[in-house]
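From the methods appendix. Each design record in this collection lists the tokenized structure first, followed by the designed amino acid sequence. Records were kept in a plain field format so they could be parsed without special tools. The example shown here is representative of the layout used throughout.

RECORD:
FOLD TOKENS (138 positions):
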């Protein structure tokens, strides 16, 4: 029985070697750590990112209305930007007419601005504080 086990293990090792499925595959996520020299592995990390300056949200929203609202948006109003980590968040409100030309009504969207560009957008919730925000025309 022990001889059969040894033959099976040896056969599996030979098959793994012949199919290039060794213990350190070149495509494995950890393979580059073993190939790199020690100097590269212990370099200091990149400096931390600086916070973005306050963006011109009115101009940014005016230029990207189609990416903020689905359909035709009119009477667009923008709240004051608030700091969100390195970027900014802003509440945007508009009267929206849907793609099927039906009046959807007033919608308030929470927009994240990162590196001076519009990022994630979602419908505002009560936790976002858009109800207490004062809006200005965009």
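DESIGN:
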């Amino acid at each position: 029985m022990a001889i059969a086990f040894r033959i099976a293990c040896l056969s599996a090792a030979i098959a793994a070697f012949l199919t290039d499925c060794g213990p350190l595959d070149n495509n494995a996520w950890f393979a580059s750590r073993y190939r790199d020299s020690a100097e590269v592995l212990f370099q200091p990390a990149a400096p931390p990112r600086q916070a973005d300056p306050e963006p011109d949200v009115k101009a940014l929203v005016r230029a990207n209305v189609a990416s903020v609202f689905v359909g035709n948006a009119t009477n667009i109003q923008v709240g004051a930007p608030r700091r969100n980590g390195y970027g900014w968040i802003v509440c945007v409100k508009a009267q929206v007419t849907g793609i099927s030309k039906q009046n959807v009504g007033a919608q308030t969207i929470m927009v994240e601005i990162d590196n001076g560009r519009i990022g994630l957008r979602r419908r505002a919730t009560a936790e976002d504080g858009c109800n207490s925000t004062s809006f200005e025309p965009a």
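APPENDIX NOTE: DSSP finds five helices and six strands in the chain.
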